[in-house]
Write a structure and sequence with these properties.
The chain has about 575 residues and is of the alpha/beta class. The chain has helices spanning about 5-30, 30-45, 50-55, 60-70, 75-85, 120-125, 130-145, 195-200, 205-215, 230-250, 265-270, 275-290, 295-300, 315-325, 375-380, 445-460, 495-510, 510-520, 535-545, 565-570, and strands spanning about 100-105, 115, 155, 160-165, 170, 225-230, 305-310, 330, 335-340, 340-345, 355, 360-365, 395-400, 410-420, 425-435, 465-475, 480-485, 525-530. It has 20 helices and 18 strands.
């Protein structure tokens, strides 16, 4: 009889064999596949309370669906979800079994509870582990005529969850992307270098130390997985600074008392942690050679791929991580996924774009133009939508989904841009969240505009920016943006004024709306705030350690919304030189 470890690996390997074919096949006739999925969802859910309210059984095509069913937001489903969670009611918004509730990042108020059905979960688990495994294997076969080595996964994420009154677990969506994650299957412990009991905790635990310790102990690691690549950079930077103490702890087989964690967890880890002088000696020898672009493959000879969201807002972290991994290490950008569903996937390592997955959700698209300043209430409340085979290259759209977990015509608030087509399916890049639009004088400035401006600022100034944020200063006369940047090296005071004017020009080039207000004299020169080294790393650590926010959910803080955020970063402003 096969053991549980073998079953988990076998399932991922078997699924990987058809995951690429499944995506490719669906993309050959994206429109037909997507419309057929909609009709299947409506038929299966016609007897739910929501389906009867909007007469799903009478809907014959996608045009009738868009005519009869309104666009929605989370608030439309909250009363149903409350009944599902607290009263264990079923067949309200979905007929499929709900096996998990995904938590949003909870940036304001309480985290939302997003239902995940068995069908929604199957899509997620098909695309995350198996697809990345298959695409990595394809890459190695095509480029090196060999398969990548097998080994443990360094998983930098949390599987912490709680049981809701209905008995269904509740946690981050990334905690269930591997088979068995929704049930916390103990057999998953054989996949990861970090002990499974560590993955199940978050608050008041020094996860960075534990991830680093157990990753360094295990030379068999063949892949690194994290929802966001900033977590991988933080870990490698931590190893770079703390390698001596980590090697000493591996040598002695101890975890120092100063490392924070629950006592029960400490006892559990101590009972299995043994001295390993041989591995400690190997690590010390490699670290003393230096932390160059070969260090990751020197300490983990089997390392063959890094799987994480690394494009767009995270590109600066990918660039920095390459100083440890080298440029030839395949970086596979994690699928375009959220608590509400999986929407798209990258087709090759190094791709910075995603292919829409027609068999995952039914998609609609609202044409988006942040420069146009559309405020018409009818257009905002009930805009016309396009379908997956009606999009144009170069155009941007707000994403609307009907998923397989009970959300219908749900406005995600994400804006994507079509950069091409793969067979008949759009190839897209993520642009920005609509709720992250900033305005001082009536303009609409997005996080994508900011990213463009930062990249051009780097190019013209020669500076390298690790991370960045902004907020609108409406108290100044005229109003202005405050741009916070963490540079790789200190910037002399005499460059501040020139750099502020350079940033003004780049902001105007990035956004014609912003440029219009600059020309009209309604926008002041932005204030540049240069932050101390590792400011953003500290911010993420505090969010995890003090507030218990899962490392799975630590997205870039691009727009500062609260005084608490502003005060934190102001305290870490780089002293003038």
């Amino acid at each position: 009889m096969k053991d549980k470890k073998s079953n988990i690996f076998d399932k991922m390997t078997q699924n990987s064999k058809y995951s690429i074919r499944k995506l490719d096949h669906a993309c050959r006739d994206a429109g037909l596949v997507n419309r057929s999925l909609l009709m299947d969802i409506l038929m299966d859910n016609s007897s739910t309370e929501y389906g009867e309210k909007y007469h799903f059984s009478d809907i014959r095509n996608e045009d009738e669906y868009r005519e009869k069913v309104p666009l929605t937001s989370y608030e439309d489903y909250e009363p149903y979800i409350d009944r599902m969670v607290n009263n264990n009611e079923t067949n309200l918004i979905t007929s499929y079994p709900v096996v998990y509730y995904a938590s949003t990042s909870g940036t304001s108020g309480s985290p939302k509870k997003i239902p995940v059905t068995d069908r929604g979960l199957a899509i997620l688990q098909d695309y995350i582990g198996p697809l990345s495994k298959a695409i990595t294997a394809e890459y190695y076969q095509n480029t090196m005529d060999t398969l990548p080595p097998e080994g443990k996964i360094l998983g930098i994420f949390s599987m912490q969850r709680e049981d809701l009154p209905c008995g269904v677990p509740f946690g981050a969506i990334s905690a269930v992307c591997f088979p068995g994650g929704e049930t916390n299957d103990d057999s998953l412990k054989d996949l990861f270098s970090t002990p499974f009991e560590v993955l199940r905790v978050s608050q008041n635990t020094d996860l960075k130390y534990l991830h680093a310790l157990y990753a360094l102990k295990d030379e068999s690691i063949s892949s690194i997985f994290a929802p966001y690549i900033s977590a991988i950079w933080d870990l490698m930077n931590y190893i770079h600074k703390e390698w001596r103490s980590l090697v000493n702890d591996i040598y002695n087989g101890v975890i120092p008392e100063g490392i924070s964690m629950p006592q029960e967890l400490r006892k559990s880890l101590a009972s299995n942690l043994k001295p390993d002088p041989a591995r400690a000696g190997e690590l010390e020898a490699e670290f003393r050679k230096g932390f160059d672009k070969t260090i990751m493959t020197r300490i983990w000879p089997n390392l063959s791929v890094i799987v994480s969201i690394w494009a767009g807002n995270f590109y600066s972290y990918a660039r920095k991580l390459q100083t440890y991994s080298g440029r030839s290490m395949p970086y596979y950008t994690l699928s375009y996924v959220s608590s509400e569903g999986l929407f798209a996937a990258a087709r090759h390592p190094f791709d910075q774009f995603y292919i829409m997955a027609p068999s995952s959700c039914f998609f609609e698209f609202i044409p988006d133009d942040p420069q146009a300043g559309q405020d018409d209430s009818e257009q905002e409340g009930n805009p016309k939508t396009l379908l997956i085979d009606e999009l144009e290259q170069g155009k941007s759209y707000e994403l609307v989904i009907t998923n397989q977990s009970g959300f219908y015509r749900y406005r995600m608030g994400d804006v994507i841009k079509v950069v091409g087509f793969y067979n008949e399916s759009p190839v897209i890049s993520f642009k920005y969240r609509k709720n992250n639009i900033v305005s001082v004088a009536g303009e609409k400035f997005t996080e994508d505009h900011l990213l463009t401006a930062i990249k051009e600022f780097e190019r013209h100034s020669g500076e390298k920016i690790v991370d960045f944020s902004m907020y609108a200063d409406k108290e100044s006369e005229p109003g202005r943006y405050v741009i916070l940047m963490e540079p790789e090296k200190k910037i002399p005071k005499e460059k501040y004024e020139r750099y502020a004017n350079l940033m003004q020009n780049e902001l105007a080039r990035a956004s014609t709306s912003y440029a219009h207000y600059v020309i009209g004299g309604n926008m002041g020169v932005p204030k540049l705030v240069f932050l101390q080294k590792e400011t953003y790393s500290l911010y993420r650590e505090l969010k995890m350690f003090k507030q218990g926010i899962s490392e799975n959910q630590l997205k870039p803080v691009r727009v500062l919304r609260t005084e608490e955020q502003k005060q934190f970063f102001q305290k870490l402003e780089e002293p003038l030189q």
